[in-house]
Amino acid sequence: MRQWMRAGLAVCLMTAYLPAAAWAAKADSASWLDAGKLEQGAFGIVYESAAAAKTKLMVSKDGVNYTYDLAGDGEEEYFPLQLDNGTYKISILQQVTGNKYKPVHSDMLELDMQDKSDVYLHSIQNVNWHEAQTVTDKALELTKDLKTEREKAEAIYSYIASNLVYDYELAASVQTGYIPDLDQVLAVQKGICYDYASLFAAMNRSLGIPTKLLMGESKNVKEYHAWNEILIDGEWLTVDTTVDAGTGSRTFAKNAGDYKASKVY
Predict the structure, then answer these.
(1) Does one domain contain both 214 and 158?
(2) Is residue 167 part of a domain?
(3) Number of folded domains in the chain?
(4) Residue 28 pLDDT class (50, 70, 90 cuts)
């Protein structure tokens, strides 16, 4: 995971430090930016890139940048506005050469949410439960006789921790831009920490339980890591299915102080 993380940051940083004049992209958002879910803290991108042209999305607020690879195939992709209320800059970037990108579109979104946990219910690019039918079906199966959100979340946690195995081959070869294919992860019953955390988030979100996917450092893992936080009874609980799958531990709520997030989705 470390090599994949560093490569992603290199692209993000080189993009962020393009000359200021380069940011004068045309704000023609009607054709590419879908703000229909803005009140719930998400937005859609519909963009078809030129043949062989790599494109990225940059979401910026108060000096913090999130960068995503875009499919660029004209199909809508959704992304979160997870940096609290305020003004966001949304930019589509096109590759010039190597890690250098130029903006081709940009616009602003103003977020003013009442319930900020709604951000963590959406089906987004890297927690794409709307397009993972077997995953949502499995979540319903695992929780069909359960009443409380805690019971449902623990059932999903136990299933993932007990059935998925770590994919060391994928961990050694994963590349920048990797996004979990959740139906595939469920089918093969293995993955890297990103897959575990995305699957846990997807299953819970599909049931209406706000769940974050976080990336960063953990005292329990040597490499860059992915885990979750889930909102239960008004409290965000830290959950790590990857670690518990490997150790055999079944401690649902971890010590939040053992984790330090650099990205939250």
Answers:
(1) yes
(2) yes
(3) 2
(4) low
